[in-house]
Each structure stands twice: as structure tokens, then as C-alpha cells.
User: Fold these one by one.
Assistant:
Number 1:
Amino acid sequence: MKVSVVGSGTMGRGIGQVFAQAGHQVKLIDINKEVLGKAKENIKESLARLEKKKALTESLDVIMERIEYSSDIADVKGSQFIIEAVFERIDIKQEALENICKSASPDAIIGTNTSSISINTLAKFIEGKERFIGTHFFNPVPVMKLVEIITSERTSKEVIEKTEKVMIEIGKDPVFSKDFPGFISNRILMPLIREAIAVYEQGIASAADIDKSFRLGMAHPMGPLELADFVGLDVCYDVLEVLYRDYGEPRFKPPITLKNMVTAGKLGRKSGEGFYNYR
Ligand code: CAA
């Protein structure tokens, strides 16, 4: 199958990689050529890790050759499955989705990798709303088996079934969610992160001990503050804001400590500083 992924940041490049690993021809598209270059390097590194532990069924080079890199969104033309994975901002997603629709074949399925924006809202930017569906992947995409499939009021049954089949075929194990803010995972994860920040804010325990409690007490691979740094503190803040705005419940209110850190540019791993120092 021909697949296009629009947006080649952390999520987009991971999604492109797993489709290529499953034997599909992938076009990885990003308007920023520098980001595309980084995506190629990063995919190679990730595949090398998988190759080293004998988790690839083909050679790294064969998989790499299945991925074409392009800075022209019109190159989605001819793809049967297109996934938008640009920045989590509604105006940026609107532009990407409208441009995708200008060139996509009328029968192409269009998925969106959003962690918090309503699928019904994004569907407004789609021509042929029945073919639009939420496909929320998890970071690191080549490792995490989960994908949340989110349907809008207008997504067709056929598109839901096809999407499920494709996700299973690329090695993911999907769950289904209605279009409610945070879907399943972030609705539950973000209040956990929020409460961990409250425990830290109140000086009850150190970041290291909060995380250790979850690693050693609940067998989580990362504690909630490490995970927040890994996801990006700006992303956590934005998701909490959406949850708080839409549900109006204090349990989703973004903590002031989180706001201060984001404002100061402490975004977690990607900026080198968050609840921990990565420099
Ligand atoms: N590509 C390929 N393989 C990778 C990889 C990558 N990018 N990153 C890690 N791996 C592999 C490693 O090769 C290693 O494999 P083996 O165990 O078979 O040797 C395995 O994953 C573990 O990696 P490491 O040993 O380097 O490090 P680790 O044990 O600390 O694990 C981790 C790293 C997989 C990230 C682990 O800490 C983890 O699972 N953390 C939780 C991640 C999580 O919860 N992600 C979801 C975030 S929420 C989200 O994404 C949605 C949202 O909307 C916010």
C-alpha cells in the first residue's frame, strides 16, 4: 500500500518507520527540509537498534529505501492511507488537512495523529468526512504497541474497519474511543501527571522519589514526572488546558509549577531540562 505521513517530527517519523517496516511504500512529508533530514537520521538509528536485537525481518537498507522524503504536501497524491502528524495546533492542522485534501485521491483514508484535539472539529477541514479518523500513536512509536482509534460522528464503518485492519497489520494493537477530550489514555494519564506535580509542588517528596514509587511500586517503566519530561512539558500543559477547558473540572487544571516551567523554556528532555537535567 502507498502511505503518506505529513509532518516528520518525533511522531510522524515513527509512524512512517513502522509502515515501512511492515512493507509499505512511505512518503514522509514536511515543509521543513532540516526536520526531514533529522527524521531520516533518526529512523536509521531506530532501525539500527532494532536490527541489533534481531527484531527486523529485512535489512535496514531495504526498509530505508521504502521511505521517500518530500517537502511538497501535494506528494500525498496516489496514497491510499494518509496520516497527518503536524504540530498539535488547530491552525497548523487545519492548513495541513486542507492541503492534504487538495491532492489526495477521493478514496484515500485520512488519519490524524492528535492527542487532544477533537476529531469532529478537525473533520470540518476535510472533504469527504466519512474517510476521516483519529489514529493516536504513542512515543516511541516503533516500541509502543498501542494506537487509539477515534471516530467522528461521520466516520464510516468501512473506514473504521479498514483502519483497524491496517493498524493490526503494522503491528499495533488498537483500542477504540469516542471523540471525548483526552480520549482514553490522556484523560487518565494527564491527571496522574498533574497530581504527581502537586506532590512535588507541595514539597511532600522529591521528583526522584515520586518516580521511584511508580517504577518500583507499580512497575511503570517511567515515573509520572520522568514521563512528563519524556512527552514534553509543553505537550502536557496543552493537553491539560484542553481537558480543563472542555470538562471544566479542577482535577484537570494545569499546575502553576508546570506553567512556570513551560514559560521558562523548561520543556523536558527535548530542551535538556525539566523535572530532571539532561545536559
Ligand atoms: N526505536 C527503536 N527501539 C527503541 C527506541 C526507538 N526509538 N527506543 C527504545 N527502543 C527499544 C530499545 O532498543 C530497547 O529494546 P530491548 O529492551 O529489546 O533491548 C527498549 O526499547 C528499551 O529501551 P532502552 O533500554 O533504551 O531504555 P528503557 O528501558 O529506559 O526504555 C522506553 C525506554 C521504551 C521509552 C521506556 O522507558 C518506556 O516504555 N517508557 C514509557 C513510554 C510511554 O509511556 N510512552 C507513552 C507516552 S504518552 C504518549 O506518547 C501519548 C501522548 O499523547 C502524550
Number 2:
Amino acid sequence: MKLSGEARVPGDKSVSHRALILGALADGETAVEGLSSGADVHSTRTCLEALGVEISGSAPNVRVRGRGLGGLKEPAGDLDAGNSGTTMRLLAGVVAGHGFSARFTGDESLVRRPMKRVAEPLRAMGAKVDLTPADTAPLAVSGGGLKGIEYASPTASAQVKSAILLAGLHASGSTAVIEPVATRDHTERMLSAFGAPVGLSGRKVTVTGGSRLKATKVLIPGDPSSAAFWVVAATLAEGSELAVRGIGSNPTRTGYLSVLARMGADIHREPARGEGGEAVEDLIVSSSELRGVEVGAAEIPGLIDEIPILALAAARAEGTSRFRGLDELRHKESDRLAGVAALLRALGAQSRIEGDDLIVTGTEKFAAARIDSLADHRLAMTGFIGAWLAGGGTVLGADCAKISYPSFYGDFMARAS
Ligand code: S3P
């Protein structure tokens, strides 16, 4: 089997959340093109609507009528963030800046994920944030009257950084976040695109309270995290020739391409037309033999969402690969570290966890398997590709791909032969 032709993917999920949120806080009407069609971004939309924001049209093209800085309305009921950590954490920062209370809930997966990481800095800014005794959601915020802080974040998390910066826009004075390792910088770029000054100095990002946002047009690039499924599948399926077009090439997101290049993948990167604050490229992939790779802990934030599919690539590479420092993977939509190790073993590859490291030894052929997605969209799509390469198998709960990529299975089979 092989993949051929051209593929396009939904708009970047991270950038889509931010486009809706900054559009909601801006003065004027923001036009968004290329919005993600995934369920997570829809959760951000419905939460914003419950906060009084008018959003017209549907993905990929929507218009957001901004309510201006501090202009959101108190919601009538709980805000349901669904499966989306980005929705809950970023909007917690936004609500903290408003003089009202809101309570965020989520699905079974989201209410197990750690929320202290946003609660602590928001409390330090003056918000009241209540969690369960396990420091999980429901997350209740009573905001307003915030003061700026300088926060050295113990966690390398773009969601934490973004929550603080969004609260900081509504705070007195300036607010700075210092990251332990650089994470995706979409919030910073988009704040600049909306006309808010952002100070950047090494791993320190600063915003000034009261900076008003000016509505703009946002063009959202294809999601590199979705493109990664195509890129790895085409690399592994002999005889494939595939072009994946219009993918965001923000260097904080393309770590997976560097790792695949080190493994010997044949991926030609062609810069394409720019999309506002975010650059775009086409990825031209030919199948190739891979070798094992070492991925260091400092690289992980730049490819955190691509670990499952990179691990699948390692499971077909010659030799042994090691991915270091994966503790954060335990706190995703599932315990993705355990989930990916089990998925690879089901396919017949050797994989084990040593401390926070994942060690994978490649095999030439996958076995048809019954794979549990653990209701995690990235494990579901990784498992599907594994089963496709094996020539058969089952993915339990495959439907959760809709979180980031509703048309994945149909699009994939249309290019597979
Ligand atoms: C995201 C940041 C990352 C990533 C998630 C999206 C974002 O999470 O895994 O899919 O949009 O800011 P963390 O901030 O928890 O690392």
C-alpha cells in the first residue's frame, strides 16, 4: 500500500483557538479564514458565545464580533470545554481578567487533567480560582482587579504561558512569563498581529495591561500536528509520493520534521505563501527507510503532540530510538506515554518506558492488532496508520479523531492505494 497525490489538513488547532479568543477581546470585527473544523475549537466557540460573543459563519470561515478588552458578559451557566485543555486554560486566563465568576467543566478526560498550573499564577495575579481537592476541574474563576506579575513557570506549557498573558492584558502594570524551555509562540505572534505590544527577551515574554486589541484578518495555516500523520504514513509506506500543502512552518512546531530528517526521511520543505503572522510551507514526501533516533528532553516541547506518530515511525526504523523527558505526555488527553507504548506493542514492536523516557525498537512488519485509542484523538489516528500499514486491525473509539481532524479517515483512504 502507498499514499499518493496531495493532502490538505484542517487549520491549526492552536492558532484557531487564539484567533477566536483574541477576536472576542478586540475592538471591531475579526475575519478568520482557515479555522479548524475540530471539536476542540468548536468548544472554544461555544464558551465564547456563552460569554456574550457573537460569532457568525462556520469553520473554516467565521467572523467574530469583538467585545473589547474586559467586555465579556457573565455566563448564565457552566462553560463546557469538552475535551479541550486549551479552551479551559486560556479562557480561565481571560475570565480572570473580568469582574465576574464562571465555572468551567469538561469531559471525562479533561476533568482528570492538571489545572493547578494555571490556577497558581492566576491566584498570584489576584483572581480567586477553585479546583477539586485533586487540583482538577471543575475550575471556578472569580476575576477582576488583577495586578501584573513576573512568573517563572515551572512547566514548559504554551497553555499556561498563554493563560497568564491573556490575564495580563486585563491586569494593572506589566505581566511577564519566563519559560523553562521555549514553547509554541502563537499567542505572542497573534497579540502583535492584533496591535498589542509584546516584549520578547530570551525565554521571557511581557505584555502591558490595558493594551487594546484591534480587529484584524487572521489566515490560519494548516496544522503541522495533523500534517505529521500524513508525513509519517507516506514515509513508511513504500512507493509513496505525497504533497502535503499549506502547513504552518512556525519553528516552535516543526521539531518533528527535524527528527524525521535525522531518521533519514525524504521530506522536501518548500516555503509557500505566508499566512499573516504565521509562515507556511508545502511538504513533499517520498517513502524512505528510517534509522533509530535519540530525541532530547529540550526538543520535546517543539514536538509534544507528534510523539505518538514519531514513535510509530521509530517502530518501523532500523535499531532503537529513545525519546527523553516525556513526563508531560502523561497529562494529555490520555496518559499518552502509557498509551503509545501499549499501541506499539500491540503492533508487534518493542517499546518500554524507563523513567520518563520511551524506548522503541523497530520491526520490519506490523501485526494486525486491536488498538485502544483511550478516547485520545492522536492515539486513534496513530493506531489507524499502524493498522493500515499492518494490512488490517481495529482501532477502538476511532471516532475521537474529530477532536482535531474530523475528515481524517476519509481523506486518508482517498489517497491510499
Ligand atoms: C497547546 C499547547 C500544548 C499542546 C496542546 C495545544 C496550545 O499543551 O500539547 O495540544 O495550543 O497552547 P501544553 O501547553 O499543555 O504543553
Number 3:
Amino acid sequence: MLIHSSSQLLTLQGGPQRGRALGALGIIENGAVVVHDEKIIAVGKTDELKAGYPDEPTLDASGCVLMPGFVDPHTHLIWAGDRANEFEMKMSGKPYLEILAEGGGIISTVKKTRAANMETLIAQSRSRLLRMFIHGTTTAEAKTGYGLQTATELRLLKALLALDDESPLDLVVTFLGAHAIAPEYKDDPQGYTDLVSGTMLPMLKEWWGTHAPRLPLPFVDVFCETKAFDLLQSKQILTQAKELGFPLKIHADEFDNLGGAALAAELGAASADHLVVTSDVDIAALAKSETVAVSLPCTPFGLAEEHYTPAQKLIAADAYFALATDCNPGTTWNESMQFVIALACRAMKITPAQAIAAATINSAHAIQRSETIGSIEVGKQADMLILNVPDYRHLGYRYGTNLVRQVIKRGRAYSVDVGYYQTA
Ligand code: NIG
Ligand code: FE
């Protein structure tokens, strides 16, 4: 298939973009792409590719931006129920960590998730996954973490693998058994930490070997935070995970600065995520490392808080900067990377070009997939978007509506635009 005549083709070529290099879109005007099977086999000007591939079936992208599919590197996709009541409580003035300490928050979703059968869990999560897809996300990371007991955490993994199997969107799985202290261990956080590191992680390794032997090992993540896992407990879990061969992630500095970002850098984690109250020392540690700083601006937005990731500082210090939704039932239920981009531009004063790179090639790097996705280059997987806009800056500029006309996933085109409904 030859996709041609795009007003702007954003290639994002050249690999992940570190520090001030962020925002190089590699634009080809009147650009075209040739796709064979699931891969990109040619990228260039429309005239050249039309001449070189005269017999290809064509897809006209006139007046549209053609760009890589969004990669969302941080979601809590799999849960049951909702917490609309807590949103109302928070808007009436009750802090998130207070609701969590009283057995609400994550724990209330844990209760609903444990009680849900497989069919319900998959059906509810599927609707979110499809919403991600029609808004342009072609690969998403997805975490467990609403089980907090070995059997349920494994059930969530199973559900995620089933969703990955059935849907066009690709999922990259993360084990987040350390999302909160399980209610059974309310007064013994160290006991739960020992359960995660000593029992769950070795079982996970074995389980993965039998259930998903062909997939790379999942990431292991920890919520390093006051009232969740302190720095030493986070280190215990992540060190054990690293020894077992798992790639690492961390939730750090969402509310309190405990040193989780520097820990991620020290252990060679793929990413450190949230990073709202990150100290200058932690920023310097990230900047010296290969660990990607993943900002989740919808989380402070969802909680109506005023502080966001110090993106300017991270970029000036030479860190890798990426964006994600954090889609979850508590702090931010939003599936759209387009909204993340619009918010990131305003709340962190970054440009649309920087936000787009942070939501494609750099977010692919945050899940260690930048060799195969996140840009439009020969040999890469054909994951692309045709946006119903003539200029890339409409991303960021516009928000709250879907700008995607078509999603191309592994070379297959899915029309998602509502288009024009003709009345009889
Ligand atoms: O990333 N920080 C921890 N986890 C989620 C919130 C999960 C929840 O409230 O259910 C987050 O914000
Ligand atoms: Fe999260």
C-alpha cells in the first residue's frame, strides 16, 4: 500500500531524542510511505514513491498529517468498576492520600477488581483499550496492580495477554504487585514487601515462562511513595526484579520526593514516571543515565493540583523526556494521548513538536521498543496515523475532540473518523 500526498509526513527519524534535541520531527512535505505486510519499506516524497511503486494500491492522505502512532508508556488499563464518588469527594476538598489511608483510593478498586470475573474484567478494559486505539495509540504499556495478591495479580496478567491477543493495539505488560500495601498487610508494609520480592517475583518469572514464552519479560514497577513503598522497600523489590532479569520502572515523586528517580537511574530502569516533586539532585541523576523521565500531566490535572513535572529542567539537563496518560480509575481516567499533548504544552510550556516526539519515539524508548516503533523509517512496524489536520501544530493547539482520521496498525488501515453523515 502506498499512502501518499500527506501535507506533512512526520518521520521522527533518528532514534530517541535526548535533552534539547527533543522536538525534531523530520518533516517531509507532500510525503508518502510504502507499506508491505506489517512493515514500512519506503519513505519519501509523493512523486518519487508514486514513480517507484506504480502498481501499489493507494491511500490518499491529501490535506492530512501522516505520523507515527502514539505510544502510551504508562497505563493502568486493567481494573473493574469506577471511583466517580471519590472524584466528588476530592472536588469537595479531601486529599487523595487521605482517601487512600482510609481504605478508599487504590484499595477500593482492588476490592472491585478481586471480585470481578474474567469476562467482566476483560470487557471493561476492552472498552478503554478501544478508546485508546481510536484516539491514535497503537502501542500501550499496561500494568497489573489492582490485585495485590499473587493469584489475582497473575489473573490480571492473563487478562492483559488475552486483550493483547484479541486487539489490534499492542500491549506491553508491566507487573505492579507493588502498587499499594495489600489490605491484609495494612499494618505490616515490610511483610507485603517481602511477599512481593520473595514470592511474587520468582512466581512471575516461572508463570511468564509457561504462559508467554515468546514475549520479552514484563517490566516490574513499584509505587515509591509515602503510604505506599518507601525508598528501601522499593529498592528491595527492584533489586530482586533486576537479579531475576526483569526490566524496571518506578512511580516516583508523584506527591513526595523520596529519591525514587535517582534509584531508577542507579538500577538502570527503563523509566522513572510521574516526577512532579523531583529534586535537582534526582534530575541530575536522571540526566546522567539512560532512564527516560516519563511525565503524566493528566494526573495533576485529574486531581486538580497545580504542580507538574519540571519538564524544562529535565530537558535542559539533558534527560530523555516522554509523555503518557497514566489512565487509571483514581487520579486520571483518560485514554487520549492527544489530550496529554495539549495539556503538556500548556502546563509545562513545551512546544507541540517536543510533545509529539515525547509521545512517539521517546515514549517507545521508555518501554524499550524504539527500535521497532515510534517513528516512520524503513524496516519499522507500520504503525501510523492519518490526522484530519493540515499541520502538526494542530496537535496541542486543539483538544477535547479526536483529530484521527485513520489508524494504521501493522499495515492495516482502520477508519475511525466520524466523517460526514449524509441524511437521506
Ligand atoms: O499512577 N500512583 C499510583 N497509581 C496511580 C493511581 C492509581 C489509583 O488511584 O487507582 C497513579 O496515579
Ligand atoms: Fe501510574
